[in-house]
Design goal:
By secondary structure, the protein is an alpha+beta fold. It contains 6 helices and 10 strands. It is globular, with a radius of gyration of 19 Å. The relative contact order is 0.22.
Length: about 260
């Protein structure tokens, strides 16, 4: 039976970020477990944007955000269903998260220019952008044997960033065909591929190698606390111990009673 400090279930952006953050803040042994045979989940097939208001990139662009406006915006959308202290914690620590990842890992961000909030008409909403961030293109060859083990969409080119689409910058022209060909040859990927690729590289740099084809079947409890996970694998069921905690980062678990 293997023992970890922290066990993370799932391998999308939140899971990989949790694994890197756990290791970076003192968990020497971190295990990432994914039921599919590839990692990245739907995050790798998404646009790859994160919404982090009051981030330092806005300050550097000369367009600082307003904490009060952001909290007003979140409150206007919440229908009274979120706790104000949790909204404040998100707004205050989100920028810290961005800085930490950029300082400690290969994960870096840039503003998706001219991308407004989803509901800019609401009080505190932004019409000019700055709160939505994305990763620049990432060289998937840096992932070694993992470069072909990340989920991807068949409908969306992996070789563009949101800033080059009609959603970002309001662009009306496509990336030149020759540029796309160069990126494809160099295996440079953007959007969700870049986000997951950089997070995966951060994990691999720290010796955290995801285990695929491990389907979590049950949480193991010991004296009222979660102490591990039981997995179903091709070789039968196994159990792992989590001495400091288990992070549930799998899509759909919120519907599992």
């Amino acid at each position: 039976m293997e023992t970890f400090d922290v066990v993370v279930l799932g391998s999308g952006a939140s899971a990989l970020a949790a694994a890197v953050a756990a290791h970076g803040h003192g968990a020497a042994r971190v295990g990432v477990f994914e039921k599919a045979d590839v990692v990245g989940g739907t995050s790798a097939m998404s646009g790859g944007m994160i919404w982090i208001p009051c981030n330092h990139h806005m300050d550097e662009a000369g367009a600082p955000d307003s904490r009060d406006d952001v909290l007003t915006y979140l409150d206007s959308l919440s229908h009274g269903m979120i706790l104000p202290e949790l909204a404040a914690a998100y707004v205050d620590t989100g920028p810290e998260m961005v800085r930490w990842f950029e300082d400690a890992t290969p994960v870096v961000f840039e503003i998706v220019e001219s991308f407004p909030d989803y509901h800019p008409e609401q009080p505190g909403g932004s019409t000019t952008g700055g709160r939505s961030l994305e990763c620049p293109l990432f060289d998937f060859n840096e992932l070694g044997d993992w470069r072909d083990r990340v989920s991807r969409s068949r409908q969306m080119s992996p070789h563009v960033v949101m800033n080059e689409t009609t959603l970002g910058r309001g662009a009306t022209t496509k990336v030149p065909r020759e540029v796309m060909a160069e990126r494809e040859a160099a295996n440079l990927r953007g959007c969700g591929q870049a986000l997951v690729g950089r997070l995966l590289k951060a994990c691999l740099d720290r010796g955290i190698e995801p285990r695929t084809r491990h389907r979590a079947k049950a949480l193991i409890e010991d004296q009222g606390r979660v102490a591990g996970v039981r997995f179903e694998t091709a070789d039968g069921e196994i159990e792992v111990v989590a001495e400091r905690g288990v992070v549930l980062a799998t899509g759909g678990f919120e519907w599992n009673r």
